[in-house]
Task: inverse folding
């Protein structure tokens, strides 16, 4: 009997040492008290099946105890001496069972690993390009004009604000013209337009070294119909993100 | 090609000079009359000039050259020669070519075969006759040609020429150009003909805007550059050896230089910014161009190598499309948007003495006449809301700023360029439904389409 008691103490000690792995105090078994023989120490086991789930999936915890009167699983609460229960952890969790009885306390743990999918937002550089195209608005001009029109000032200010908040973005401003002007004059006019946008941005605090300008005159139109709606589309300073 | 003998006779100087002086008068007074006609037709917006103004053109008969040998293999050579010669003389604008339908059945191939009465009398009534013969012997093409004053039976010969070259259509055309130039030079007031001149231009027919070249009459169209980008504004150098133009490179517009001797791009500085519309001075030593390297498009002048660039304008807004006064190389005309819509201005080549030439509308693309007296330009005179206003070619007398409208036929007409003899203007027009290159006499008559394939634009006529 004594040998068996000693043996079971050793087993419990070894088990708890392995299963809690430093998480709990290693209790050096007290020297065996003299008779009367002590009450039997509790035993406990806890498993999770499956022990690896994708996020949102359930797993079943199964436990069994003996010689215990007070059984508790962290996060689940008081439970019967033996049983099973479904749980749906949102992240990887170590379930911790504590079985208390007149003969002492026994603990058991089960680890459930939850695989979470990679976070949807990708690398930050792609985000910047997306943000650039979402936030930076082209600037439109009147016929034969290259000054920033009153109704375009807000767009320029918003562009400047975004670009000031994203100081690592370099970009090109393309100057475009409608089809009506003459080829050479339009290239010069488009140059004035791209520089007008650049100057508006630099005076709003955007560093000039981030900005390149080019004129396309009427060589690369956005729209090829001969009407005012289309011509207005082509009279613009167009922003292009530069990698 | 060699000219093996010449037998020009100048014994009839009195007769010949009376012809040539009347032609000289005609050619020189043509534009003056044209401009003085402004006053007569001040309320009229369409002025037609020509023989109606009392200037007689020389009545010239040009019978087909007689084959001196019969060679079936080379049947196309006489036709190529005769068509080219007729076309050159017709294009010259100084002759009244007598229709071939009036000619006698027997046409001369040799001086001994000339029947003077048949050509000087009715119904031909020619003053001058160009005739000759053409033969193919083996690999050689031999052409003999004469110009006769058919009203002078005792000493009729004004010109006698023999040409020899390898038998080919190109050679037949080239000989015809040379002989036509001789006739035009003799009868056209001593001004060299343009039959051997070239036109460089921009064509899309390869899929990109590239620089192309053709003979002045539209023959022999061929691609010069193969850059696969957008190349614009070709300007041929006065000696004909180089073409300066503007190309969209990786990140800017640069002026590039193409050598027609080496058949490749040769080095030229990259200035940064938008560099456009290079223009040669007539002595070939300098280039004017537009550059935005300082943040605003301005006119610069550089050596022909591109070195020693200096800015000569300083006004906000587009400054572009400079051209030199080819007579003096001391003035520049250009386009400026400094007051709003583009207008034509002139200045000294150092940037002083700025004169505004156009008073209203949308005026671009100046070209300075070889004699220094006129500008031709593209102008939408009535521009504004509700004014559709077509772009037409105009001629302006620089001293008086008086102008006449040369095109009236609809479409957008732009980029005029003078022929070396100052009698013709080449330009672009979309009146046919697509953008093509056309020529006309400098009074607006004889408008002729030169290109048909792809779209073609920005013609520039060679200097000789």
Result:
């Amino acid at each position: 009997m004594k040998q068996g008691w000693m043996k079971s103490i050793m087993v419990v000690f070894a088990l708890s040492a392995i299963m809690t792995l430093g998480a709990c105090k290693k209790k050096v078994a007290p020297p065996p008290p003299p008779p009367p023989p002590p009450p039997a120490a509790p035993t406990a086991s806890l498993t999770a099946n499956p022990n690896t789930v994708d996020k949102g999936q359930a797993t079943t915890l199964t436990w069994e105890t003996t010689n215990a009167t007070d059984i508790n699983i962290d996060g689940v609460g008081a439970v019967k001496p033996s049983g099973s229960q479904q749980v749906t952890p949102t992240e990887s969790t170590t379930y911790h069972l504590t079985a208390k009885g007149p003969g002492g306390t026994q603990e058991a743990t089960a680890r459930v690993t939850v695989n979470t999918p990679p976070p949807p937002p990708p690398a930050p550089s792609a985000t910047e390009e997306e943000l650039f195209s979402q936030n930076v608005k082209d600037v439109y001009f009147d016929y034969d004009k290259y000054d920033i029109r009153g109704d375009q000032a807000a767009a320029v200010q918003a562009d400047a604000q975004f670009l000031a908040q994203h100081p690592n973005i370099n970009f090109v401003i393309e100057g475009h013209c409608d089809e009506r002007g003459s080829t050479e004059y339009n290239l010069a006019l488009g140059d004035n337009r791209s520089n007008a946008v650049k100057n508006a941005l630099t005076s709003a605090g955007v560093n000039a070294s981030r900005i390149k300008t080019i004129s396309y005159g009427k060589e690369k139109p956005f729209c090829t119909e001969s009407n005012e709606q289309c011509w207005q589309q082509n009279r613009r300073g167009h922003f292009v993100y530069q990698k | 090609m060699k000219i093996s003998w010449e037998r020009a006779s100048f014994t009839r100087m009195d007769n010949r000079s009376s012809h040539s002086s009347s032609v000289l008068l005609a050619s020189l007074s043509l534009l003056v009359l044209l401009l003085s006609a402004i006053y007569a037709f001040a309320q009229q917006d369409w002025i037609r000039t020509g023989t109606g103004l009392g200037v007689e053109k020389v009545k010239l008969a040009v019978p087909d050259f007689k084959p001196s040998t019969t060679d079936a293999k080379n049947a196309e050579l006489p036709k190529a020669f005769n068509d080219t010669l007729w076309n050159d003389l017709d294009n010259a604008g100084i002759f009244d070519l007598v229709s071939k339908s009036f000619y006698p059945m027997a046409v001369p191939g040799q001086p001994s075969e000339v029947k003077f009465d048949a050509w000087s009398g009715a119904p031909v009534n020619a003053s001058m006759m160009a005739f000759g013969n053409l033969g193919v012997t083996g690999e050689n093409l031999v052409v003999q040609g004469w110009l006769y004053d058919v009203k002078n039976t005792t000493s009729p010969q004004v010109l006698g020429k023999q040409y020899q070259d390898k038998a080919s259509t190109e050679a037949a055309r080239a000989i015809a150009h040379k002989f036509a130039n001789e006739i035009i030079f003799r009868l056209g007031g001593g001004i060299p003909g343009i039959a051997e001149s070239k036109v460089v231009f921009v064509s899309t027919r390869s899929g990109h805007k590239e620089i192309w070249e053709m003979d002045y009459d539209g023959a022999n169209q061929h691609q010069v550059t193969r850059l696969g980008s957008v190349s614009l504004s070709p300007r041929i150098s006065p000696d004909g050896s180089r073409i300066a133009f503007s190309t969209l490179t990786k990140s800017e517009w640069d002026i590039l230089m193409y050598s027609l001797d080496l058949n490749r791009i040769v080095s030229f500085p990259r200035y940064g910014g938008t560099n456009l519309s290079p223009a040669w001075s007539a002595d070939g030593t300098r280039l004017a161009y537009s550059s935005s390297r300082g943040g605003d498009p301005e006119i610069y002048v550089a050596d022909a190598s591109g070195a020693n660039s200096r800015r000569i304008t300083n006004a906000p807004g587009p400054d572009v499309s400079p051209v030199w006064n080819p007579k003096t190389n001391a003035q520049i005309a250009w386009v400026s948007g400094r007051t709003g819509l583009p207008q034509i201005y002139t200045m000294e080549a150092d940037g002083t003495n700025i004169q505004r030439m156009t008073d209203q509308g949308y005026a671009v693309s100046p070209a300075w006449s070889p004699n220094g007296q006129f500008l031709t330009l593209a102008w939408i005179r009535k521009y504004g809301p509700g004014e559709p206003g077509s772009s037409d070619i105009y001629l302006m007398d620089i001293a008086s700023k008086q102008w006449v409208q040369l095109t009236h036929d609809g479409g957008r007409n732009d980029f005029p360029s003078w022929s070396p003899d100052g009698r013709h203007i080449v330009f672009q027009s979309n009146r046919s439904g697509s953008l093509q290159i056309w020529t006309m006499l400098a009074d607006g008559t004889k408008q002729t389409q030169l290109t048909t394939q792809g779209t073609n634009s920005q013609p520039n006529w060679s200097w000789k």
